Amino acid sequence: VMDYHTFVNRKNKAIIDATITVYSNLNEIHSPHLYLSNRNRDLVQTRTLIWSYLRFNTAMSYQSLGKIFNRDHSTVIHAEKTHVKCMGVYANGKTVDPDYQRKYFEGIELIRDLVDESEVSDNKLKYKVIIYADAPQNWNEFAILSASEIITLPV
Questions:
Q1: How does DSSP assign the chain, residue by residue?
Q2: What end-to-end distance do the CA atoms of the chain give, in Å?
Q3: 89 bridge partner residues
Q4: pLDDT tens digits, one per residue of 46-67
Q5: Do 58 and 15 contact (CB within 8 A), yes or no?
Q6: pLDDT of 3 over the 80 cut
Q7: Are 116 and 11 in contact, with CB atoms under 8 Å apart?
Q8: Using a CB cutoff of 8 Å and minimum separation of 24, what contacts does 8-14 make?
């Protein structure tokens, strides 16, 4: 029987490695360059894609995410804000950064194919639950949302 922390660490390592590989390849970046202090646009975008994927698909903190590339947690927070902007849509319906969005979604599919499901899932768990609460003291007021409804929630 594997304890929880061992499971989480193994799961995170597999996802981190796959995410770095996939988004580095999509942006045609040599992954060792991601660890340099260089602020080249392609490197920054690749780190942003990696951190955003990991932030939404793991329980890693900003501090933990920053440590991957020897960055401060505030850099990860800024990257997350940039990600949200790039994933947005203008009032006229055009996407803010279609190339970024294409890479992000293509990366999601490639990571799913790359990571062995047995390495990242606990067979006893069936669902990932995310709770958003305006007033946690009112736990009796809740709604179950579909994935499409969650995507359209205002940020």
A1: ---HHHHHHHHHHHHHHHHHHHHHHHTT--GGGGGSS---HHHHHHHHHHHHHHHHHS---HHHHHHHTT--HHHHHHHHHHHHHHT-B-TTS-BS-HHHHHHHHHHHHHHHHHS-HHHH--TT---------S-GGGTT------HHHHHTS--
A2: 40
A3: 95
A4: 999 999 999 988 888 999 999 9
A5: yes
A6: no
A7: no
A8: 8/59, 10/119, 11/58, 11/119, 11/120, 11/121, 12/58, 12/60, 14/115, 14/116, 14/119, 14/120
Here the tokens at position 80 are 């997350």
Residues 57, 115 contacting (CB under 8 angstroms): no
Q: Which amino acid is at 39?
A: R
- Tokens of residue 49, six digits: 């894609």
Enter the tokens of residue 53.
């994927």
